[in-house]
From TrEMBL:
<comment type="similarity">
    <text>Belongs to the sugar phosphate cyclases superfamily. Dehydroquinate synthase family.</text>
</comment>
<comment type="pathway">
    <text>Metabolic intermediate biosynthesis; chorismate biosynthesis; chorismate from D-erythrose 4-phosphate and phosphoenolpyruvate: step 2/7.</text>
</comment>
<feature type="binding site">
    <location>
        <begin position="126"/>
        <end position="127"/>
    </location>
    <ligand>
        <name>NAD(+)</name>
    </ligand>
</feature>
<feature type="domain" description="3-dehydroquinate synthase C-terminal">
    <location>
        <begin position="178"/>
        <end position="320"/>
    </location>
</feature>
<dbReference type="GO" id="GO:0003856">
    <property type="term" value="F:3-dehydroquinate synthase activity"/>
</dbReference>
<feature type="binding site">
    <location>
        <begin position="166"/>
        <end position="169"/>
    </location>
    <ligand>
        <name>NAD(+)</name>
    </ligand>
</feature>
<feature type="binding site">
    <location>
        <position position="148"/>
    </location>
    <ligand>
        <name>NAD(+)</name>
    </ligand>
</feature>
<dbReference type="Pfam" id="PF24621">
    <property type="entry name" value="DHQS_C"/>
</dbReference>
<keyword id="KW-0479">Metal-binding</keyword>
<feature type="binding site">
    <location>
        <position position="181"/>
    </location>
    <ligand>
        <name>Zn(2+)</name>
    </ligand>
</feature>
<comment type="function">
    <text>Catalyzes the conversion of 3-deoxy-D-arabino-heptulosonate 7-phosphate (DAHP) to dehydroquinate (DHQ).</text>
</comment>
<feature type="binding site">
    <location>
        <position position="139"/>
    </location>
    <ligand>
        <name>NAD(+)</name>
    </ligand>
</feature>
<keyword id="KW-0520">NAD</keyword>
<dbReference type="InterPro" id="IPR016037">
    <property type="entry name" value="DHQ_synth_AroB"/>
</dbReference>
<keyword id="KW-0456">Lyase</keyword>
<dbReference type="Pfam" id="PF01761">
    <property type="entry name" value="DHQ_synthase"/>
</dbReference>
<keyword id="KW-0963">Cytoplasm</keyword>
Length: 358
């Protein structure tokens, strides 16, 4: 089976391949004696494959099934894992492995970042979104009742194993949601991604085809390039947050019944409309957002939630500075910039544009 390895700075490898489980012990490294396997429920095939590969390498595997999806990202679940690590005597040379979608890898990374002030984590994403985004780059975290990802740490993984064959069981809606982050990478940095999706949207959703593989490789390359320059989001990394200010607000207002990728899809249309309202982006590029997102089945409008509730959620965005709301907007494709303190009228007009079905 073929492997592509994307190196993130001088730090770690993202291995992209098929049936690539034999690579896992190498990513975990030789110093570990124990592995905490933090895994999403209902992934019997990958969980068995991970366990077999690690045990064959002489590692003791402590199994930790966690609640599914966003329900994993809570302080209670994290506390349960800290307790398990304590009871099983995990030391600083032992390793956490996160297996599942972005919610599971965010939790696993956060627990690894905080246990003994930091033990290694190896991420094994099994969703498209996890492979191209969540498992790479070291943002880890959990939610609080006040908002999304409000508690967390920057803790880069020791390695990432993206086994494309795991996508064969992923529900189509979750695959589509993952494409939102891929398309985001197209708008902020790599226009070839947009061309590939536009040329054949169904090929972009074929998990056994070459187009999806190229999209994964390109999106991982965008993320690796950005995070290797600015791990702690002092500036450049903010571009990876394109579409997330409004997207996270939808997720919160809708009590996480929307998939992250779906909310980010609408969030990108919102911020494109905001860029147009502020006079920095051409309407043609705004419509290109709608067309490419819609072509793969992603939502481009949202008419729920009160404006006040969305605005309150947006104010908690990490890009805010004091009372100043800040957005990543585009000047054109692959030319992101910042919009600081847009007017109330601009914010509202972008909301009205997103509410309307166009
Ligand atoms: N840390 C980061 O940089 C970063 C980046 C993007 C997103 N995120 C976070 O990632 C989360 C979203 O991740 P997601 O879209 O992967 O959702 P998810 O983790 O909720 O997974 C979606 C669903 O797919 C199931 N699943 C996972 N793999 C499967 C497989 N191979 N076959 C069948 N079912 C499978 C899961 O159990 C879940 O029900 C959000 O919490 C978001 O905030 C983090
Ligand atoms: O890696 C990043 O940086 C990102 O912003 C990627 C986003 O896709 C991701 O959803 C991230 O978790 C959002 O982070 P937050 O800092 O806005 O909570
Ligand atoms: Zn995201």
């Amino acid at each position: 089976m073929s492997r592509t390895i994307v190196r993130v700075g001088d730090d770690y490898d993202v291995v992209i391949g098929e049936d690539a489980w034999a690579d896992l012990p190498g990513l975990v490294g030789e110093r570990a004696e124990r592995v905490l396997l933090v895994r999403a429920p209902s992934l019997p095939g990958p969980a068995d494959a991970v366990r077999t590969a690690l045990e064959a390498a002489g590692l003791e595997v402590v199994d930790a099934e966690v609640p599914d999806a966003e329900r994993a990202k809570t302080a209670d679940v994290a506390a349960g894992l800290w307790s398990l690590l304590g009871r099983r005597g995990f030391t600083r040379t032992d390793v956490v492995v996160g297996l599942g979608g972005g919610a599971t890898t965010d939790l696993a990374g956060f627990v690894a970042a905080t246990w003994l002030r930091g033990v290694p984590v190896v991420q094994v994403p099994t969703t498209l979104l996890g492979m191209v985004d969540a498992a790479v780059g070291g943002k880890t975290g959990i939610n609080t009742p006040e908002g999304k990802n409000l508690v967390g740490a920057f803790h880069p993984p020791a390695g990432v194993l993206a086994d494309l064959w795991t996508l064969r069981t992923l529900p189509r809606a979750d695959l589509v949601a993952g494409l939102a982050e891929v398309i985001k990478c197209g708008f902020i940095a790599d226009p070839r991604i947009l061309e590939l999706v536009e040329a054949d949207p169904s090929a972009a959703l074929d998990v056994d085809g070459p187009v999806l593989r190229e999209l994964v490789e390109r999106a991982v390359a965008v993320k690796a390039e950005v995070v290797s320059q600015d791990l702690r989001e002092s500036s450049l990394r903010e571009i990876l947050n394109y579409g997330h200010t409004f997207g996270h607000a939808i997720e919160q207002v809708e009590a996480y019944t929307w998939r992250h990728g779906e909310a980010v899809s609408v969030g990108m249309v919102y911020v494109a409309e905001l860029g147009a309202a502020a006079g920095v982006l051409d309407r043609g590029v705004v419509e290109r957002h709608r067309e490419v997102l819609r072509s793969v089945g992603l939502p481009t409008s949202y008419d729920g939630g009160s404006w006040e509730a969305l605005l309150t959620a947006m104010r908690r965005d990490k890009k805010s500075r004091g009372s100043l709301l800040r957005f990543v907007v585009l000047e054109s494709v692959a030319r992101p910039t910042r919009l600081e303190g847009p007017t109330g009228a601009q914010l509202r007009s972008a909301f009205e544009a997103v509410r309307a079905q166009r």
